[in-house]
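Section 5: illustrative case.
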């Protein structure tokens, strides 16, 4: 399975190499231009990207989004790096984009790498126990989330949306469940990365 790793951390590269060695042909790149060129040459099945390698400017965002769209059969793992909070879960924000952290459990990563979208998966059935649906919010949850991430409290959100505080709390609970974390910092981080990688979390 052709795999590309864009991560400056030596320990991460060694860890992934040891974890993937048997089934993966690994290519290491050090910046986005190399990643783009390697994708064109290798047409990888899997790409690991450290968040630190993602530039915040508009041009870089646009190029990364285009890459993800062009290689729709490639599974992109985005490692959160700007947070020190432990996050062992994973969040599909698109069918081929997963946001996670380096704390992800080895067994979970193994199952994700056998995602049925990958034709090279060794045992596609093993990923059946995982939730592989992209996160989707209702319009009300999305509106509430933006206010919450902007620093508004429950009462302020309740007043602005003209809903009960109990409803606001219910929306927060739904979002925490869907993003698989009770921690506001992690939720904010996932939302920000999703906005950078895509057009944002799906809204129905």
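Designed sequence:
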């Amino acid at each position: 399975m052709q795999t590309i790793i864009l991560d400056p951390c030596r320990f991460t590269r060694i860890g992934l190499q040891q974890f993937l060695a048997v089934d993966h042909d690994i290519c290491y790149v050090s910046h986005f231009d190399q990643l783009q060129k390697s994708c064109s040459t290798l047409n990888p099945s899997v790409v690991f990207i450290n968040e630190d390698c993602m530039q915040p400017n508009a041009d870089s965002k646009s190029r990364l989004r285009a890459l993800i769209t062009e290689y729709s059969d490639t599974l992109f793992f985005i490692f959160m790096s700007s947070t020190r909070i432990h996050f062992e879960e994973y969040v599909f924000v698109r069918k081929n984009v997963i946001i996670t952290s380096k704390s992800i459990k080895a067994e979970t990563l193994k199952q994700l790498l056998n995602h049925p979208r990958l034709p090279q998966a060794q045992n596609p059935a093993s990923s059946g126990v995982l939730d592989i649906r992209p996160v989707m919010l209702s319009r009300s949850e999305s509106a509430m989330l933006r206010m919450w991430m902007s620093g508004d409290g429950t009462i302020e959100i309740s007043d602005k949306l003209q809903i009960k505080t109990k409803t606001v709390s219910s929306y927060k609970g739904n979002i925490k469940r869907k993003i698989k974390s009770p921690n506001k910092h992690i939720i904010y981080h996932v939302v920000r990365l999703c906005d950078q990688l895509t057009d944002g979390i799906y809204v129905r």
